[in-house]
């Protein structure tokens, strides 16, 4: 037992040591560049999946393994660790830093919730829409961490309103009237002096007022308390209270899960919404430089219907799972608000009032946010010439990262405060401070993700140089006999399963170099397989540890692991089904997916030469 305990304590160390040793026969026996690259790929992939080492540290292994194996020179590997993706990430994080610093995200979330109302069903949808919208521009973790405290405040307010309503109902059911006692007609005193009794099963405490004594001008009531058999009305009250408690526990669970899941679902919408989308875009543009079809606008067009459908179906699924089929009350309109709904509205209004009027930095952040979005959409919209056509001599030079950097740098230049006027009408200047500082930017910059993505690019380059990707493509060619929809479905199910136990960036980084040769081998447009696989990589809904948003929500204590597993399984099925429907219908004409493009290599002609 002591040996087993030692093994458990040092399991990560043993994994770090044994993994390279056990795989070492691969490059020693099969002395080819493909085997040496595969050895590096397996070691890094195992470390990523098990997180034996920090993800960024594991991503640095190709930086010294490829030069030692003679696959790539050190300077060539180093160049893979900083690409166009990183510049785009820097610009987006500048925006996110300003949004979080000036609390603009909280204002947006509260305003959206106020618009949809406080009916439990609509309140839940309001939290989902606001969190999903924030997740389009911020990280999933930041969106969940910002919205969840608002949800918790609403839940606590509903709990207090529920308790007060129960106390009032209990006093009425007992027939007890606790009169207010007047002193000199000015002061009000309430006496409560009841013996502590413990009722048994099918009994309840019954209290009545026997008489009032007048002593020195004071009224002293005398109460008689006894334990009586529970009446049918009392039993009905108890069962009703229990059903209400179950109902509101279900509402709390739905509100918590909607934050966790919408933070992930919203990130699907934009290229910058989640790291997996960014990794896919950079991998695709690097592997297929002749194709300029993946940009902010094209991705938004293909993904916004997917996001909306998944969001709505997830909302319905969570409502049904925890609250049942009571859709009549869910969507009731024009009726008087209950005490619980009034409590929800009150806390949301109070939170919004705390923010005060919109400030100058928030206005500037909003303007720059809108400007960045418009520039992304209008760079190459496709149906009309974009602003990039103003530079015909430098076609393809400007990318989404160009826009992100230009707007991002403005956050370091524009002052955070304007001149203030004194009573004499003179302008008084306050020390110059930009909207964000470098320290604030550094605290928000996900350097681990940046290095992790760089390691993925290095692995992809090594697979190309060593011809490992071509070898994989030839071995995967027999899969071409399967129906295309089945190949896509298998790919989606595999990445969805793996991403539940591994980080999303690590999963997509591992599978992109495998799925790209697969598409080329079976002579299918690579986007047909890569787009659904990328979207499904974000479907980490089952476990609290599957992604940071789940962990944040789970930490509040309203959920059990089984709650998340039951709900997450349904969301996973919904997500994969909607992605399959999208890739076989409306995404096809956007990229002409049924035609094998000329920008993708022709494996058969390459092998014949």
TrEMBL record:
Name this polypeptide is given: Solute carrier family 13 member 1
Transmembrane segments: 12-30, 37-65, 85-104, 116-138, 204-225, 251-279, 299-322, 358-377, 397-414, 484-515, 527-546, 567-591
CC terms in the record's Gene Ontology section: plasma membrane
Keyword Transmembrane helix (UniProt): yes
Family to which this protein belongs: Belongs to the SLC13A/DASS transporter (TC 2.A.47) family. NADC subfamily.
Pfam families, alphabetized: Na_sulph_symp
Major localization class: membrane
Membrane topology: Multi-pass membrane protein
Keyword Iron-sulfur: no
Keywords: Ion transport, Membrane, Sodium, Sodium transport, Transmembrane, Transmembrane helix, Transport
Localization of this protein: Membrane
Record PROSITE patterns: NA_SULFATE (PS01271)
Listed GO MF terms: sodium:sulfate symporter activity
The species this protein was found in: Nipponia nippon
